[in-house]
TrEMBL record:
<keyword id="KW-1133">Transmembrane helix</keyword>
<keyword id="KW-0812">Transmembrane</keyword>
<dbReference type="InterPro" id="IPR056078">
    <property type="entry name" value="DUF7661"/>
</dbReference>
<keyword id="KW-0472">Membrane</keyword>
<feature type="domain" description="DUF7661">
    <location>
        <begin position="4"/>
        <end position="71"/>
    </location>
</feature>
<protein>
    <recommendedName>
        <fullName>DUF7661 domain-containing protein</fullName>
    </recommendedName>
</protein>
<feature type="transmembrane region" description="Helical">
    <location>
        <begin position="6"/>
        <end position="27"/>
    </location>
</feature>
<dbReference type="Pfam" id="PF24697">
    <property type="entry name" value="DUF7661"/>
</dbReference>
Amino acid sequence: MTEQRFKIFGALIAITGTPGAWHAWYFGAEGKRRPADFIVSHDVAEHELCDYLADLFHEHATPRNSTAARLP
C-alpha cells in the first residue's frame, strides 16, 4: 500500500491504497487525519491523482490558494 500527500488549493489530503482501491484522508492542523468525504474513482491511476483532485476541488481555488501539488 502506498501513501501520497497533496496540497490541493490549501487543503492537505493523503491518498492511500492502490489503483482500484484508493482511500482518501484529510489532515487537520494538529497532524491527525480523518476520512475524507469524497471517493477517488477506481479507474484513476497513481500518476493521475493530483490532476484528479484538482479537478474535483477546482471550485475551492482562490487567488491565495491557487495550486494543486503533490508533496514530497
